[in-house]
Amino acid sequence: MTIQFSVSTSSRVQASAVGVPVGSDGPVSSKVGLNRKQLSERGFEGRVGQTLVLNGLGGASVVVAIGVGAGNSLTPNDARKAAAAFARAAGKVESLATTLAGVGRGNKANIAQAVVEGIQLATHRYCALKSDKNFASPLREVVLVSTAENAAAISRGVKNGAVVANAVCMARDLANTPPAYLTARHFADKAVEIAAQTGLEITVYNKEELLQMGCGGMIGVNQGSVEPPRMVKLSYNPKGAGKKQHVVLVGKGVMYDSGGISLKPSDPSHAVMKMDMSGAAAVLATMSTLGALKCATRVTAFLMCTDNMPSGSALKLGDVLTMRNGKTVEIHNTDAEGRLILADGLSLAAELKPSAIINIATLTGACLVALGEKVAGVLGTNDKLISQLEDAAARVDEPIWQLPLVKEYRRLLDSTVADMRNIGGPAGGTITAGLFLSEFVGNTPWAHLDIAGPMKVDGDDGWMQRGATAFGTRLLIETVTSFKAV
Questions:
Q1: Does 4-171 carry CATH code 3.40.220.10?
Q2: Is the pTM of this model over 0.85?
Q3: DSSP labels for 42-79?
Q4: Does domain 177-481 correspond to CATH entry 3.40.630.10?
Q5: Which tens digit of pLDDT belongs to each residue from 88-99?
Q6: Which are the catalytic amino acids?
């Protein structure tokens, strides 16, 4: 159920729970009902994201003191964290009100957007298959209380925040959906529905068309499956976008990754391979927001959707595939399938001669080992493009870390029978995967986001909710809406 966010300049807003910002210094609002010493005795110090629930005070059924740090220095990222903490502390209520969007010295629209994102993302649940009707959050209405001076800016932030948060929730729902409920065909149908709702141009390519197009990576990975592949092309074409303002996004959409003949072990990591399409979900969600956010950059997207299954017809080790750009690839591991389907998408992207290509994928366990579960890896051929991604990542609190494309490692991909093979050696797997992908982008500035680590969390963590995180969605939205040609 969609949460309705609104802005009010009245101090008498009625809500099930009221959030009152309290800094680690300075005065304490009388609405809290406690002074600084009394708060301290209850362990509340006003740190960002800290909360204290006070029942029956301030004229509301629940009052929540929300820590906002020292010196009115709250940033949008702090506000998102604080808003998420407030929403969780309030519990299962139908309405919230808070003055949190008016705190801090930054742009009030940006802070308001972060507050909306924090509340909606913290209360979001994937409920489609739950029989417990109380599992979903009952929250339906949130009022951001503002001064008359800040109301216009906060209203803008609320509008943008709702667009972005709804997109992230959609991407989470897609990634959480079991593979029997979300095949490549289902995903393509969803993309058609979203394109119609958001004014995007869309073309869906079936197996026969992919074969005619020479997309050997897609055909090869899919050949062990009874479910046919789909490639979805989405286009957003705003008026006035010049030739240098064109970004192509490519998303890995492996609907379920068994590993193919190189079968994965039956362990917890295998159980979440329904999320191996998180890159495509993030791209689809990003595209859905561009019209509403008035993005000035032309954006094209390729969603590469198939599953990777073992069967008598499955891709075998030693097979050679011919990619869209004509390069031949010898298969040494069928579980290194994501790069094969991305190769076709990147080849098609390069043919469009855009100003930049960005792909996103849950690509390598090596990246998870290197950077853990909170940070995504980024590699690429253009430092200015990577800098834009890093800046966007910092603004939306989706951290990324650049890894090098070590050219000397390219020899690890050498094949005796083909142009290259699909894996390198036992070490540096994220880098060799990046080097593989770089073979398909030509001279176009390109960046690769490996989100294998932060694709999911096992418990509530800031704005992230247990399960699929849709990490990369807000990062891509921020990147393309603020893009500068490189």
A1: yes
A2: yes
A3: TT----TT-EEEEET-TTSSEEEEEE--STT---HHHH
A4: yes
A5: 999 999 999 999
A6: 264, 339
